[in-house]
Amino acid sequence: GESVGLHLPTLSVQxxxxxxxxxxxxxxxxxxxxxxxxxxxxxPQFIIDIRSNMDKxxxxxxxxxxxxxxxxxxxxxxxxxxGDSAVYFCAEDEGSNYKLTFGKGTLxxxxx
Amino acid sequence: NAGVMQNPRHLVRRRGQEARLRCSPMKGHSHVYWYRQxxxxxxxxxxxxxxxxxxxxxxxxxxxxxxxFPKEGPSILRIQQVVRGDxxxxxxxxxxxxxxxxxxxxxxxxxxTVL
Lengths: 112, 115
Description:
Shape of chain A: globular
Oligomer: heterodimer
Number of helices of chain A: 0
Helix content of chain B: under 10%
Structural class of chain A: mainly beta
Distance between the termini of chain A: 21 Å
Largest sheet of chain B: 7 strands, mixed
Radius of gyration of chain B: 13 Å
Number of helices of chain B: 0
Largest interface: A-B, 28 and 30 residues
Shape of chain B: globular
Strand content of chain A: over 45%
Distance between the termini of chain B: 37 Å
Number of strands of chain B: 11
Order of helices and strands of chain B: EEEEEEEEEEE
């Protein structure tokens, strides 16, 4: 799910399957990362966050993995549901404590 | 507890007009952030404000754009003499403080269309 060109990367899964959305970040100084979900016509909604001193964090049906060596972040959604269909953005805080830098997003489509 | 509120939700302006976008943060939040989103892109940071203070406006275009967060009332993002390239979704977020790991709560956005 990395950003390529002008079009959103897309991921299409069947309902009930697990989804994995990937994100590459650029700044090795970034110390805080967030995944947001954005449904059509709405603002981003917080899903889960992780600090740079961790490599894994779990929430309800979601897990975020952080690999600082290769500057890679992933979001795993278990038992994906139609309501999970949205654009998913990773965002990083490059040390400012307030300024978030967003990736270009991945469109997740869940087929019933 | 109401979330972040933005109005208007949709705004249409002709080239050369002014656009005023309003953001009311969540109750108890004194930190406001504005982001701009172009189609099929992620959000881009514009400005960070606290009450009566602009903390960081490094993402704001140098001309025509201004932001304020007065002691009373909503935060305002003002765009003067709009051009077609200003067409975008503008999102406001708020947080109770700017300490590390403080989640920013986003509003529904204002979609600006410049004709």
